[in-house]
Design brief:
InterPro entries: AAA+_ATPase (IPR003593), ABC_transporter-like_ATP-bd (IPR003439), ABC_transporter-like_CS (IPR017871), ABC_transpr_LolD-like (IPR015854), MacB-like_ATP-bd (IPR017911), P-loop_NTPase (IPR027417). The chain contains 9 helices and 10 strands. It is α/β, with parallel strands linked by helices and 313 residues long. β9 and β10 (310-311) form a beta hairpin. The two termini are 26 Å apart. The chain binds adenosine-5'-triphosphate and magnesium ion. Magnesium ion binds at residues 136-137, 258, 290.
Length: 313
C-alpha cells in the first residue's frame, strides 16, 4: 500500500537542492520574477508567531495579511542568516518520559494523561490512536510545546522543553515544528500560493527564498496546478495538502497533525498519507499524528494506542 501511495506523489526534487550561496546570487532575478508573476502582498519578513492558532487569531491575521496586500509596496530586504536553536543531536526527535497532565475545572481535578512514555525517531511516521477523550490532542499539544506537562519530561532533539523559557519555546515552535489540523486552518481569502508564502513570512525566512520554496512545497504535495486557487475553490483533500505545504514550508524538523484525515473520504485520506510518506523522504521531516481511522494505520512506522490517558502495551 505504501509503495502504491508513494507512486502517486513521487517527486525527484530534493529539499536541499539549492545551496544558500546560489540562492544569494540569484536573489535579484528571483525578486524580479516574484514581483511580476505572483501575487505579492507581503513586503518584508517580520517575526510573527507560527504556533497553532485559534480561529480568532486566524481571522485577525487574515485581516492584517489582506490589509498588507492592499497597502504595501514590495521592498527589498536583506537575507538574515538563520540561527540554530538546537545543538546537533543524533537521538530521537521526541522522548517523552512519564508525562502526566491534569486540569482543574472548578473544584475538580481531571487527570487526563497518566504516565506517558514514548519515542519518535527521525523520519518516522508515528500515529496516536484511541477513542474520543482518551487524551490524544492533549498529548499532541504537549509534544508541540503548546502546553506543559503537570509532571514528567519531554525532550525535543535531546533538549528538555520544560526547562526552556516561553520565548525560547515559542521560537522552537516557529522554527522547528509545523502544525496540521483536522479543519485545514487556511486563510480563506488567500490563494494556495499566498497561504504557503504567509507561513514563510511568519517564520522569518528571507524573502529571496520564498518563490522557490513555495513552488517546491506546492509541487511536493501535488498542487502545482492549483497555486492560484483559494480554499473554497479546492476539495477538502486539496485544502489539506495546501495546509501540509504550509506546515513544511519553513523546513520544520517535526510535523504534528491532529486527525488530518478525519474530514476526508478514504481516497483523499490516502492521498494525504501518500504526501506524508513523500515529505518524510524528500524533506527529512518527522511526523506524529493522531487518528481514529483504522484504514491508515498500516502507513505508520509505529502506532501508540491510547486508552484513558495511558498507552496500551
Ligand atoms: N483544558 C482542559 N480542561 C479540562 N479538561 C480538558 C482540557 N483539555 C482536555 N480535557 C479533557 O481531557 C480529555 C482528553 O481530551 P483530548 O482532547 O485530549 O481527547 P482526544 O483523544 O483528542 O479526543 P478526540 O478523539 O475526541 O479528539 C477529555 O475528557 C477532555 O474533556
Ligand atoms: Mg483530539
Amino acid at each position: 500500500m505504501i509503495a502504491g501511495m508513494k507512486k502517486l506523489f513521487s517527486r525527484k526534487r530534493t529539499a536541499k537542492s539549492q545551496s544558500g550561496d546560489k540562492r544569494e546570487q540569484e536573489q535579484p532575478k528571483l525578486e524580479k520574477r516574484a514581483a511580476s508573476e505572483e501575487p505579492s502582498y507581503i513586503t518584508e519578513p517580520e517575526p510573527l508567531s507560527a504556533e497553532a492558532l485559534t480561529s480568532d487569531e486566524v481571522s485577525a491575521m487574515e485581516e492584517s495579511a489582506t490589509a498588507i496586500a492592499i497597502e504595501e509596496k514590495p521592498q527589498k530586504t536583506k537575507a538574515k542568516p538563520r540561527k540554530e536553536l538546537l545543538p546537533p543531536y543524533d537521538g530521537p526527535v521526541l522522548e517523552v518520559r512519564n508525562v502526566h497532565r491534569s486540569f482543574q475545572t472548578g473544584s475538580r481535578i481531571i487527570h487526563v494523561l497518566k504516565g506517558i512514555d514514548m519515542e519518535v525517531k527521525p523520519q518516522q511516521l508515528v500515529m496516536l490512536k484511541g477513542r474520543s477523550g482518551s487524551g490524544k490532542t492533549t498529548l499532541l499539544n504537549m509534544l508541540g510545546g503548546l502546553d506543559q506537562p503537570s509532571s514528567g519530561e519531554i525532550l525535543f532533539s535531546g533538549q528538555p522543553l520544560q526547562d526552556w523559557g516561553d520565548q525560547r519555546r515559542t521560537a522552537l515552535r516557529r522554527r522547528e515544528i509545523g502544525f496540521i489540523f483536522q479543519a485545514y486552518a487556511l486563510m480563506p481569502l488567500l490563494s494556495a500560493w499566498e497561504n504557503v508564502e504567509l507561513s514563510l513570512r511568519m517564520a522569518d525566512v528571507p524573502r529571496s527564498e520564498w518563490k522557490d520554496r513555495v513552488g517546491h512545497c506546492l509541487d511536493l504535495v501535488g498542487l502545482s496546478k492549483r497555486v492560484k486557487h483559494r480554499p473554497f475553490e479546492m476539495s477538502g483533500g486539496e485544502q489539506q495538502r495546501v495546509a501540509i505545504a504550509k506546515a513544511i514550508a519553513h523546513r520544520p524538523r517535526l510535523l504534528l497533525a491532529d486527525e488530518p484525515t478525519a474530514e476526508l473520504d478514504s481516497k483523499m485520506g490516502a492521498q494525504v498519507m501518500a504526501v506524508f510518506r513523500n515529505i518524510i523522504e524528500v524533506e527529512q521531516v518527522t511526523i506524529c499524528m493522531t487518528t481514529h481511522d483504522p484504514t491508515i494505520l498500516e502507513v505508520a512506522d509505529h502506532v501508540y494506542e491510547m486508552a484513558d490517558g495511558r498507552f496500551l502495551t
